[in-house]
Design goal:
Blueprint lengths: L1 E5 L7 E5 L9 E10 L2 H7 L9 E2 L3 E9 L11 E4 L10 H4 L23 E5 L3 E3 L6 H4 L2 H15 L6 E5 L3 H12 L4 E6 L7 H7 L4 E4 L5 H8 L5 E6 L4 H10 E9 L12 H6 L3 E4 L5 H13 L8 E6 L3 H9 L5 E5 L1
Parallel strand pairs: 9-10, 9-12, 10-11, 12-13, 13-14, 15-16
Antiparallel strand pairs: 1-2, 1-4, 3-5, 3-7, 3-16, 5-6, 6-8
């Protein structure tokens, strides 16, 4: 089968090549990939700025159709439309695996960088990682379920959105846009998304198309002043920091209300960032960081897509055959697209 493979360490070394078909395990389902979303992680791997185990097939955001199941699989069959949590399980013995938090197991077998992923014609994954796609959701829409599940866990399960919250999402990449959409779907009275001048062509307009109330270029507008104006000086109830940019992280503590909530989901790429610790204590800020997704967040994400409460169509900038991965990667790298899908 054809697959997009990172063949060795270093910048580049990414190519579409023939590889062996996956071996179907007795507890696994063999899935024909219908669409795979390009994540920032894939760009970082191509540029050698993320850990990975080459040679490895990239891709962890995908949707597909089951073509066969192992002899011990129960509850799934050929023809089922599915998405999957992006791993083949963890160690099975640590406290996180034993308490159902396999997504934070240090030995998690994550697809797309530790083991072979979804930029391929087929892949085989445990039935325990699979989730059915609602009939009303297309394969293209379902391919965005993985990042949506990440923000559902972070924003809705851990930080929580209260009715009538004023929510600010710092950063308007796919994670930021989906976090904003999740907050809106959960009952926030207003959602502000922030970005920079590089986001004015694609990402900030998409935020408005997705129903957000404010899309703010922080290089041209004073986001803090706008929040104070809209909240009568109280500050935001919830801030989702999805940019990983140190200035935004610092400003979140100025922008949040007393006893407000900050949700950290954007990775900075730095060993450490400076935090206004004393200000955070004086304001009694509740900070919650989140990583990856879990079973419940996947089910909830699919429900939000199936009900139409979240519409991801404005985010999908295009669909390209896998052989055109270079063009797709270039568009994303240059901020000329929001989310691009590859099809085998």
């Amino acid at each position: 089968m054809k697959a997009l493979v990172k063949t060795q360490k270093g910048k580049g070394f990414l190519e579409v090549k023939d590889v062996e078909d996956p071996v179907l395990g007795e507890h696994e389902a063999l899935i024909r990939v219908k669409a795979g979303g390009i994540c920032g992680t894939d760009l970082h791997i191509e540029a050698d700025r993320f850990h990975y185990n080459p040679p490895v097939i990239l891709g962890h955001e995908f949707s597909g159709e089951i073509v066969d199941v192992g002899k011990k699989v129960v509850g799934f069959k050929a023809g089922d439309r599915v998405v999957s949590e992006p791993h083949k399980g963890g160690c099975g013995t640590c406290r996180y695996c034993l308490t159902g938090q396999v997504e934070v197991c240090r030995e998690k077998r994550a697809i797309g960088y530790k083991i072979d992923g979804a930029f391929s014609e087929y892949l085989s994954l445990p039935a325990t990682s699979l989730h059915r796609i609602p009939d009303s959701v297309s394969f293209e829409q379902a391919a965005l379920c993985e990042p949506l599940a990440v923000v559902v866990k972070a924003v809705l399960e851990r930080s929580k959105v209260e009715p009538e919250d004023f929510v600010v999402v710092m950063g308007c990449g796919p994670i930021g846009l989906l976090a904003a959409a999740a907050a809106k779907a959960e009952g926030a009275r207003a959602v502000m998304v922030t970005g920079t001048s590089g986001d004015e062509k694609q990402r900030l307009p998409v935020a408005i198309k997705m129903g957000m109330d404010y899309a703010v270029n922080v290089e041209k507008q004073d986001a803090l002043a706008l929040v104070n104006e809209r909240t009568r000086g109280a500050g935001a109830d919830l801030i989702v920091e999805a940019s990983g940019a140190e200035p935004a992280i610092r400003q979140a503590f100025d922008m949040i209300k007393i006893d407000g909530r900050i949700c950290g989901v954007g990775i900075s790429g730095k060993e450490a960032v400076a935090l206004p610790w004393d200000l955070a204590i004086r304001k009694a800020v509740n900070v919650s960081c989140s990583f990856s997704s879990n079973w419940t967040s996947w089910e909830r994400a699919l429900s939000l897509l199936g009900s139409g409460k979240i519409n991801v169509d404005p985010m999908i900038s295009g669909t390209y055959p896998m052989k055109e991965w270079k063009k797709a990667f270039g568009l994303l790298r240059n901020l000329e697209a929001v989310k691009i899908l590859l099809v085998p």
